Amino acid sequence: MKGLIIKDIFALRQQGKILLALLVFYAVYSVVFKNLSMLAAIIVLLCVMLPITTMAYDEKSKWDKYALSMPIQRKTIVLGKYLVAIMAEFLGVVAVGVLGGFIVLFTGEMAIKELIMMTLVIAGIGLLFLALILPILFKFGVEKARLIMLLVLFIPSMLVMMLPQLGLEPPSTQTLRFLGYLSPLAAVSIFFLSIKISVCIYNKKEF
């Protein structure tokens, strides 16, 4: 397991440089335009894309066929990808918390409690996105699943944007706060279910 995670980390070295540059850019953007929510969304989105990138590298190099020729259980390979995903998500949440804390101190854009709630919501959304997309990637591969990933990402966003046009009232502040604290717990539950589904898919897959 440890070796699988180290392999993915080495594969992401170049992506890490790009990620750092984007973090600096959006941090400056958030300070100038006082838009912390944009920074939070971008950071978590970039971090959840990291495990998808490792799967793209594996698919291109046909690594799975090589790995299965060694004494590695299929379940271990799947769990390795999920652990990389959790590490990437944790990195994103920490970055949001640290950078967001500094930006709040300098700009006073929001209260610390609001920052904590926003971080919890973003963490829950990131885990939920990974839980939905990873089984699809294991089933179809990265290349074939690109359109599905876009739909998973943009359809909920479009539905939220269309609420006022449909005559529906947006959720109240109390409802949003409740969902904010509940989202990580719900996302974790769905995440464990996602692992079971992915293991089942990968056990039946032929390379």
TrEMBL record:
Bilayer-crossing regions: 16-32, 38-57, 78-103, 115-138, 147-166, 178-202
Domain of life: Bacteria
Keyword Acetylation appears in the UniProt entry: no
Annotated InterPro entries: ABC2_memb-like
Record keywords, A-Z: Membrane, Transmembrane, Transmembrane helix
A Pfam short name: ABC2_membrane_5
PANTHER family for this protein: MEMBRANE PROTEIN, MEMBRANE PROTEIN-RELATED
Name this protein carries in UniProt: ABC-2 type transporter
